[in-house]
Amino acid sequence: MIYTVGHISGAHFNPAVTITFAIFRQFPYREVPLYIVAQLIGSVLASGTLALVFDVTPKAYFGTVPVGSNGQSLALEIIISFLLMFVISAVATDDRATGELAGIAVGLTILLNVFVAGPISGASMNPARSIGPAIVKHVYKGLWVYIVGPIIGTIAGGFTYNLIRFTDKPLSEITKTGSVLFKSRKTTK
C-alpha cells in the first residue's frame, strides 16, 4: 500500500515520522499541519469503516490500550518508535542505502516491534493509528501514551541516525583509505 502513493505523498502515514522529518529538514514545515490533519482524517475514516462493517464489541476494540501500566507502554512506544525511525532514516533518507529495500527493512522492523511490544502496548508507533479508533469508539484510556511515546521515540531515532551519519561519502569511498576511526583521529589532531 505504501508504495502505491509514495511518489505522491512520500508515504507519510505517521504524524510522528512527519514531525521528525520536518525537524531534520527532510520535509517542509509548512506542509506538516496539512499532512497531520490528512493522517488523522484517514485514521478516523478507516476506523469508522471498520466499526460499520464489523460488530465491534468493547472486548474486540481495534485501537491501542495499555495492557500493563501507562509507564510500561510509554517506555515501549518510545523504544519501538526509536527503532522504526532509525531504520526509516537509514534506508529511506540516506542515499547511500539501497532504496529498493526500504519497504522490506521498514516492514520487518514493524513486524519485530509488534512481536516484542504488541502484547504490552499494542505496538502503535503511530499517533494517528491510535487516535482514529479512540475517537470512533470513545475509548481514551492511555491515549496520551500513543501520542507522546511515538513522537519522543521518532525524534530520538532521527537525531541518533543523523548523529552517526558523519559523512555524505559512500562507504566504499571511506574504506578505500583505511579505517574510519583511524581517519577521523588523524583529522582531529
Query: How many E strands?
Result: 0
The percent of residues in helical segments reads 55-70%
Question: What is the H/E string?
Answer: HHHHHHHHH
- Unreliable residue runs: 179-186
Beta-strand residue fraction: under 5%
Question: In CATH's first tier, which class applies?
Answer: Mainly Alpha
- Please summarize the sheet with the most strands: none
The CATH architecture category equals Up-down Bundle
Q: Report the average pLDDT across residues.
A: 85
Question: What name does CATH use for the topology?
Answer: Glycerol uptake facilitator protein
Number of helices: 9
Count of spatially separate domains: 1
- Overall 3D geometry? globular
Task: Classify the secondary structure makeup into a structural class.
Answer: mainly alpha
Distance between the termini: 50 Å
Give a nutshell description of this structure:
Pfam families: MIP. With 189 residues, the protein is mostly helical.
